[in-house]
Amino acid sequence: GQSRLKIVAYDLMVFLYDIINDRKLPDFLIHDGVFHGISLKTRINTINYVYHKYLENAKHKQFQYIVTFNEDEIFIPDDKTSEYGKFDFDFKKSIVAEFQDVAEKTIFKRIFG
Asked: Hey, which of 13, 91, 98, 103 has its CA 20 to 30 A from 21?
């Protein structure tokens, strides 16, 4: 988890620096599976941090932070919010697409191989 967290921290540092300084680079960052192995509390804190940075910069410059998770990596049971924390926004409203390992719920509506 520590090496993955270093990747997240470095990427966010460079990305947010570019946003704040209005550099002419893409206004999105994609992390695919990088949070696997990072504690749930750290995931929540990181996502909340990015959310608040978005709010701070929304009038100046908007950006997208695209992340992928397995459902068990991001779900917070109600009885665990005091232990892990909670999102400062409605996470479910931020979900653009959900996929599963059954043909009709995969991205291409079929299983390959």
From this structure: 91
In a domain, 90, yes or no: yes
Q: What is the pLDDT of residue 91?
A: 86
CA-to-CA distance for 100 and 37, rounded, in angstroms?
Answer: 20
- Domain range holding 41? 2-105
| Number of domains observed in the structure of the chain | 1
89 lies in some domain? yes
pTM of the model: 0.85
- Look at the alpha carbons of 101, 107, 111, 113 in this order and tell me if their dihedral is positive or negative: negative
**Distance between CA atoms of residues 18 and 53, nearest Å:** 12
- Bridge pairing between strands 28-32 and 64-68: parallel
